[in-house]
Amino acid sequence: MQFDYYSASVPATVGHCIHEMKQDFSAGFEACDGIQRYPQGVRCLTSGVRIYSGTSQPLPFVVASSGAAVKFAEFVRRVYPKHKVTRLDAAQDYRQKGAFDDLVSMIDPICRDSNVKCMFQGDVHPDQTDGRSMYFGSKDSDVRLLVYEKGLERIGQGDAKADPDWVRMELRVKFRKEMKVTGATLSPEALFGRSRWSVKVSEDVLGKLPEYLPDASLRQTDTMRSLEHMFKQYGRVIRKAHAEIGEDEIIRRFLDAAKNA
Fold it and tell me: What is the count of structural domains for the chain?
């Protein structure tokens, strides 16, 4: 299993990213179109890596897809270990006849028992040659699994040498808030821990039981989110007060203020 897509905010300037990547990827960069809220972009001449910038967010947003994702993951984790990921895809390939039907038959009941949305795309005829796809999870879900006939897709794109029995299982995971830091340390296999149903898929299909990693930001109450916001906003004042009057006095004053609010 390996990364097939890697997107992250990198703690560096665009110039520094390009300088470091030129050494690792042995290639130059050229301007390309931006995406969404990033109007400026540059792309690597020899791989699927793009660097986007130009918003109020000072950190560049880097995207690596397909074969470049594996190399970029190794690069960014070594050079910029404090980066934050927004989406990671993990791909597992199978090359045997009937793999698509076998995988779907194992995954489908798990997802339906968990009320996960399931969607088929393609021709149901047994002799179809365009390639079938099965999606588990909606496009807006943080965790989405796709099983598709990669070989037939490639043949349809003009690659006559592609194996028609090539099937890919691809997990797509989005990250929020503090989980963006956690995601930057996860292996492709560990991504399956991001939901209870994907943990079950990993156990039954891959024979591996990953650690369950729920999104802590989704489990916080509005009260706790407001409290964290207050600490961030007044953290400097609290630190100074702690140095002046001590922890016990700070707690007493906080509780008194809450009682009188």
Answer: 3
